[in-house]
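ugh ok fine here u go
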Amino acid sequence: MNMNRTRLVLSALTPGKRRFLQWVVVCSMTTIVCCAQTPAKGNVSVYSDLSGANCKISNTNKETGATIQRCKGTAGWDLLVQYDDQRMSIAVVRPDGSEHPLNFWDVISPGFSTLGPRAEWRMPPAGNEAVREPLAVIVRVNASERQKAGDNKNVSYLAVARLQGSSVCVTAKISPGSNSNEQARQAADKASGAACLAQ
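structure:
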């Protein structure tokens, strides 16, 4: 259809139909532009075990029974699994060797606790592996908490800690729920700009 014929067709339309046709054209062009843009790839998860062959005991207190195990993480980052007085927590070890305790027993729950079997590291999309570092880490904390009725109940939280930004710290405590894993990943992907939870 040439330009003159297009003008003739448009002039034959009522003003209302012309506006509607213009709206359809604009929406179609907007859709084409949006579809042409390549969506950003999302972050991915890498997992590491918090027990077994992946860990080695680095410290034991014979008097109290407290132990610290160093477990391999990813991209040069490790985790220290801490056990003391029937409670567990972790400390993050950066590639430079600096240690950053997360103090789950203060931030997540003061009750007796154990950790899940593995840590979930949130990583940027694959690219330059030499400079690819984890953005956050997610660890399950199973805590025994006293209820109002006086009895104890086991509650499974997901602790989210940021690894980049001004400091390493816990930024989110995800309560049990049907989509708690996804909530934790979303919180982890935003952790670098989130505030630290108060201890």
